């Protein structure tokens, strides 16, 4: 794992192996580490993906993971790996989403923001208390996710129609290129085609 892609601050800051800003996101130290991050991702991921859409969700996740590894490389020499920086980024992105669209969500949105704030503060406090947790990756990930949400995240506006009806439209500050937003759909289409081909092949092999 160390050879393949764990976060190495020295190699990253020297500009020798910048791919290590990305590869640690997909590596974990053991099964428990993987299970804990999977559980956390399952808690926050579906809601963020529903609000942001698959393309912006993917972009926020990856940018947050990279931002977390940048912070970690700058502030700690210790090697690290895991997706927690990216997951913290999703939490940060969700907070910004609730904040900038607070008028639409009202009291429910404020309660969710309070819950997100408590969760992040508790995790950061726990991280600083534990020497085995890369807290700078968590903080950097949250900053990266917040930036992505502020720049590219949903900005919901209520617009009136000529017939008197009202609709909610998404007007982000900056729109991600369609080529990026469509990547998850393209991947899904490819898997679907492969699955169909496999079913056809199995059917033919049974003849």
TrEMBL record:
<feature type="transmembrane region" description="Helical">
    <location>
        <begin position="57"/>
        <end position="75"/>
    </location>
</feature>
<dbReference type="GO" id="GO:0004252">
    <property type="term" value="F:serine-type endopeptidase activity"/>
</dbReference>
<dbReference type="InterPro" id="IPR050925">
    <property type="entry name" value="Rhomboid_protease_S54"/>
</dbReference>
<dbReference type="Pfam" id="PF01694">
    <property type="entry name" value="Rhomboid"/>
</dbReference>
<feature type="domain" description="Peptidase S54 rhomboid">
    <location>
        <begin position="16"/>
        <end position="150"/>
    </location>
</feature>
<keyword id="KW-1133">Transmembrane helix</keyword>
<protein>
    <recommendedName>
        <fullName>Peptidase S54 rhomboid domain-containing protein</fullName>
    </recommendedName>
</protein>
<feature type="transmembrane region" description="Helical">
    <location>
        <begin position="81"/>
        <end position="98"/>
    </location>
</feature>
<dbReference type="InterPro" id="IPR035952">
    <property type="entry name" value="Rhomboid-like_sf"/>
</dbReference>
<keyword id="KW-0472">Membrane</keyword>
<keyword id="KW-0812">Transmembrane</keyword>
<dbReference type="InterPro" id="IPR022764">
    <property type="entry name" value="Peptidase_S54_rhomboid_dom"/>
</dbReference>
<dbReference type="GO" id="GO:0016020">
    <property type="term" value="C:membrane"/>
</dbReference>
